[in-house]
Amino acid sequence: ESKGKANMIFSAGINQTLFTYMTKFKNFYRDASGDIKKKIIVKVSDFRSALIQGKFLAKKGIEVSEFRIESGLNCGGHSFPAGGNLLGPALKEFKEKRESLKATLTPLVKKYYEKMGMVYPESAQDETPKVSVQGGIGTFGEIERLKSEYDVDYVGVGTPFLFVPEATPIDDDTLDLLCKGGEDDYYISDASPVGVQFNNIKDCGSQLWSKKRIEDGKPGSPCPKGFLVNNKEFSEKPICVASAKYQSQKVEEIKNSDQTEDEKSASLKKVYEKECICHFLGNGSLLMLGIEKNIERAPQSICPGPNGAWFTKQYTLQEMFDHFYGKTESIVSEERPHLFAKEIQMYVDYFSDQASSLDYTAPSLKTLDKIKANLEDGMKYCMEISTKDAFKDENLASIPTTVETQSARLESLYNDFKSKVQ
Length: 422
Hints:
Layout: E1 6-10, H1 16-21, E2 38-44, H2 47-58, E3 64-70, H3 87-115, E4 130-134, H4 140-150, E5 154-156, H5 172-180, E6 186-189, E7 198-201, H6 205-215, H7 244-255, H8 261-273, H9 277-280, H10 283-288, H11 317-324, H12 339-357, H13 362-386, H14 398-420
Parallel strand pairs: 1-2, 2-3, 3-4, 4-5
Antiparallel strand pairs: 6-7
Helix pairs in contact: 2-3, 7-8, 12-13, 12-14, 13-14
């Protein structure tokens, strides 16, 4: 209902209740001049997701102005693995079916306008949703590849700008940690209380704070904001699994259970790993800006993508722009793997985690079969890309070596699991 003209971004899958609620607000619809005051951007992992969400909204007369394709693993923030579907093949399908997307969605929007007695402006008939991409992009050459190969309208870069104080306010300790972090320090954690894996860096302020609380026998956060309360295990009123109220009760339950000592240790680790991200994530900025002065009250959490390992110092905004526009020598090592190569490695890591956590049953094997097939198709496609001429600072040579290594690893992990299926 604000007066501002802006975009609203929806992330992490379809929310039918929320999408239906949007119909109550006229700013999501075109006015008499054909303008939309509040445009919608939907993050998706593949074309199928875009079509499903786009159709659901279109049937309610709401248009998606931009589909933002995101690598579910090779990105900052929460991690959303998409069953082994790699970014390259997803972009290829979008390019091939982009016109069909408009052809499917626009008639549904017009039908809603007619049903509601609204006029769908003639000027809107030929508008096509924009397509953008983000996730693990680190060089000018990779941007050029995405633009030229897939005709995307925009390319988004996030994590590298954590190293630019002019762009992103972060306290000195956290920024120093990012600069010193290597590939083994950036990892996917279970820190988020929403039950979705979360990109992280080892030994950040929030982890040190949480460790101290555990050692003092007071695990969990006081829960000062309460945005993520969703658990009714110990109370009728929802509480957050990262809160002290929840963790103290859960720890007591585990300690008094009939689990083995090893099982208790594993269960406790899962409880202790949850962090109060709705409070901790903003603290780095509050400390840098001087809004919060007591670091003890402001543990710092941060969620950089793995791409951060290749940026090693603070940069000015000009330096970072010049890097991504190809105006200077690359500020990242030439050894940095191509974003497609890194994603392959991360997906085989994901496959390994799935193989370790699933029961040795036929349904579990079927799940791994699907992930493996998608990965193999994706790696085959990436090999085709690797034979093309590289753009400036585009490490296409890293793709074949990664495919060779990770294909062998994938096959070994799969065969080991299959041999144990009952």
